[in-house]
Amino acid sequence: MAGGPVTQVRNMLTGFNAVFALDVGIDTGLVDNLAAQEPVSLERFVNSTEMHPRHVGAWLRAVQAAGVVEVDKDGMARFSPGWRDALTNPDSPDYVRTLPGCYAAVAGVAYPRFAGLFKSQETMDWRDFPKDVIKKVYADGARFGREFADEVVPVIPGLKARLESGIMVYDVGCGDGGFLFRFAEKYPRSNCLGIDCCQAAIDLANEGKSKIGRQTKIQFTTQMIHELPEAQADLIVLSEVLHEVGADKRGDLLQAIYRTLKPGGVLFVVDPVLPDSHEGYLTRSAQHLAMMVFSEAPLVPDAPLTRKDFFALLKAAGFDQSLNEVGSSDSYLTAWVVK
Ligand SMILES: C[S@@+](CC[C@H](N)C(=O)[O-])C[C@H]1O[C@@H](n2cnc3c(N)ncnc32)[C@H](O)[C@@H]1O
C-alpha cells in the first residue's frame, strides 16, 4: 500500500544508509575531494578519484538523495548550503564530520550482537570494542570540547581568566581526550588530566597528545573515575559519562566529583536527559534521543536520568548552588555549577 509501512521502512532505510554514505565518503576521501573541487562535473569528479566509477557515481547519488550534495541541471555537483563546513571545517559550529563514523562503527560491531544481548540480559562494555571502533566512536567528543572552550567558558564568570593564568582541569571519563586537546591548546598554562578506565581510549589519547603543541600540560591516566583525590581540581568536565554509569553508582560518582573540586571550583556536565513525561517523547529532539538510547541500550548498564532526577542527584552530592544551563535542549543537558 503506497504510503504505508513499506514506504515508511524505505524512508527509515534512506536515513540509515545516508549515515553510511557519509561515513564512507569521509573514510575514502570523497568528501574532501568534492570540497576541493566543487562545483565539479560528475564525470570529472569520478575521474579524479581513482576509485571504481560505478561506486563513486552511486555514492554521489546517495549523498544527493540525503540532501548533502546538490547536482544541478548541467550535472555540476556541489555541497548543499552548510554541508561543506559541517564536514570539513572543525571550527564551524555545525561541524559534524565525526558523528556518522560513530554510529556506523557501533552499528557494525554491536548491532549484530543486539538480539543476543537483549535475550541474555547482558551488556557489552566499551572495553569489548576493538581500538579502530573506539577511535570512531570517541572522535565525536571533540565537538563538545570546541563548544565548551569557545562558547561556554566565556559565560562562566571569571573562568576564562583563571584558565589563562593556570588552573587544574580534570576530564572525568575523558575517552580519547578529544575534549581536552582543544582546551589544552587554548589554555596552555592550565594543567589538564584525563581519566578513563578504557585502555584503548587512553592509548588513543596519548597518541593524540603527541600530535598537539608541546607546551600544553596534559596527562592521561587509566583509572576508575570513582577513585579521585580530594580537593584537587578547579574545573571538572563530565561529558557524556553519567548516563554510562550504573544508576546505583551515579550518586557516588557525583559525590567523588564534589570532593575532588576545590571550593569555588566548577563542574561542567554534558549528558542526555530523558523526558519527565510521556508527552515529552513527542518532540523531534526526544525522538533523536530515543534512537540514541536504543543504540546504546545493551552497551551501558542503565538508561539516562530524567532532568528532574539529574538535579536531585547533583543536590544530594552537595552542589547547592543553582545549576546554569547553556545551550541545553529538552533532551540534552549542557550545564555548569559552582561548588
Ligand atoms: C561516551 S564516553 C564519553 C567520552 C568523552 N568524555 C566524550 O565526551 O566524548 C564515556 C566514557 O566514560 C568512561 N567511563 C564510564 N564509566 C567509567 C568508570 N566507572 N571509570 C572510568 N571511566 C568510565 C568510558 O570508558 C568512556 O570512555
Question: Could you characterize what this model shows?
Answer:
With 339 residues, this protein is of the alpha/beta class. It folds into two domains: 5-94, Arc Repressor Mutant, subunit A (Orthogonal Bundle); 141-338, Rossmann fold, CATH 3.40.50.150. It is 48% helix and 16% strand. It has 15 helices and ten strands. The protein has helices at residues 5-28, 30-37, 42-47, 53-65, 83-88, 98-109, 111-120, 131-138, 141-152, 159-165, 178-186, 199-209, 247-260, 284-296, 307-317, and strands at residues 40-41, 69-71, 76-79, 168-172, 191-196, 217-222, 233-239, 261-272, 324-325, 332-338. The chain has a seven-stranded mixed β-sheet. Helix 13 links the parallel strand 7 and strand 8. It is globular. It starts with a helix and ends with a strand. The relative contact order is 0.09. It binds S-adenosylmethionine (SAM). S-adenosylmethionine is lined by residues 126, 138, 141, 144, 173-175, 179, 196-198, 201, 224-225, 239-241, 244-245.
